[in-house]
Structure formats: C-alpha cells, structure tokens
Design brief:
One of its GO terms (molecular function) is nucleic acid binding. InterPro entries: RNaseH-like_sf, RNaseH_sf. This protein is of the alpha+beta class. It folds into 2 domains: 3-210, Ribonuclease H-like superfamily/Ribonuclease H (Nucleotidyltransferase, domain 5, 2-Layer Sandwich); 235-269, no CATH class. Helix content is 32%, strand content 22%. The chain contains 8 helices and 10 strands. Strands 5-4-1-6-7 form a 5-stranded mixed beta sheet, sandwiched between helices. A 3-stranded antiparallel beta sheet has the order 8-9-10, with no helix packed on it. β6, α4 and β7 (133-136) form a beta-alpha-beta unit. α6 (154-161) packs across α8 (183-206). It is globular.
Length: 276
Amino acid sequence: MGLTEKLAINPKVRNRILILDVERVNGITLQHWWDRKDLQKRYIHHETVIREPRTTIVCAKWYDQPDVMRFTEWDKGGRGQFLKRVHGLMARADILVGHNLDNADVPWLVGDFHLPREGHKHRPSLPPLPPFKTVDTLKVMRSQFKSGAPFKSLDALCKLLGIPAKTDVYDPEAMERAVAGSVEDRVRLTDYCEGDVIATQGLYDTLRPYIKNHPALFIDGKNKLTVCNRCGHEAEPTPRKYVANVLSYSMLRCTNCQGYTRLSIEPERMSIVRGV
C-alpha cells in the first residue's frame, strides 16, 4: 500500500470533496508609458484593456470517484453553457481542494460567473454559489513547512514527493491557438489541466497529516468527537496535552493519518495569571 492510499479519506465520509484546477487565456492591453518607472509599476487602466484574462478550461474530480471531468469554453453551447456546468458542479461541493485555490482558481471562477470579460461577448447571469470550505495545498506548504520546502509549485512538490505529476508545461501560445480553434492545442491543454487535478489529489493525500484546519468530516453513526477531521478515521486519546497560554486541552491522534486533534470540551485552566 502506497503512502497516498494509506492516508486516503475514509470512504464512509459524507462530505462531497471536489478537486479542481483551471487554465486561462491571458489578457492584452495597450501599454502607454512616459518613463521607465511606468514600466516598473505596470498599472493597467481599464481604458487600455483589449482582452481580460478569462478561464477557458476547468478540470475536476470528486475525491471518491476515478474519473476526471473536463469542461471548456469551446464545448457545445459555448462559454455560457461552460460556466453554467462548472457553476452547477461547484454548487454541489462541500469542500473544494486545489493548489493556490484560494488566491487563484476560486476568485477567478467567481469573477467569471458574475462579471463580463472585456474581449468576449458573453454576459454571465449566474446566482451566487452556496457556501463551501476550501483546502489550499499551497497554503498548507507555506504555513507548515515555510523555508523548509523552498520549492512550492505543484510540479516541483510532486517530483520531490514522488507523486505522479504532469508531463507537460503550460504554453500561452498554445492557449491562443486553442481559443482560435486549434483542436490539437485544445486537447493538449485540457490533458495538461487534467494532469494537474490528479497531481493535486496525490499532494492532498500526502499532506493530510499537516492540514491542521481541515474542514470537519462526518460519518453517519460515528461519534463526531473521535472522528479525525482530516481523514474521517478513528482518533484515539493520547497522554499528551495541548497547552495554550491559559488553557490545556485533551489531545487525540488519528489511527490512520497520525494527525493530532484537540478537544475543546472542558479544557483545564493552567493559570489565572498572564503577562502584560
């Protein structure tokens, strides 16, 4: 059994977990400048925008399903149907997982769902998404490993950890050709996006013990106090205590992923004196 299989989420978990990745076409502007400082600052005025960046490809898979779903703006129905399908998929998810998801994929998609993009005729009219939680594997690497992991790109991490990773690189010129109608480039870039989804799930599983704030996982009939919030398997009490500034908490350790959790029920007060 490999590491990712050992750290996999309990199949009885009820939460719907969606692994997500997007690809975009870049923006184009008319660049006017007075001196070299303008080139350094690169402030973009709306009046100079010819084309805004927009999402053109979305690949996603449910954590517990083997198949990767592929959506593109050149599918039948055009950009409107493409965004509607992606919106409907995200609306069914309880947890979204991705690499740089919080700063890139999610805000980009929310913008695509609700705002028109300069350079494309489509005018979106989709409703707000229902609430969901996110797990950003890039944030996990930055918060838990800091300078201990100097390379934090998805490709670099997967190579370092031995996770099957993408075999291609993003090519902005290929995206231009894809938007213009090149079938070969459309297939290539969608395959690239699909590879990122598969790699992200492998990284998500590998990092599982380090995802401290993972959204709670629920299993019917299980005591919520002893279910590991990371993988949904049973957690057992440990003799150690989690000590905060004033209170101490009982700690549990997962029998599967070995991650630690603390119980916030009846914490013990360690001191009534604090430094000022």
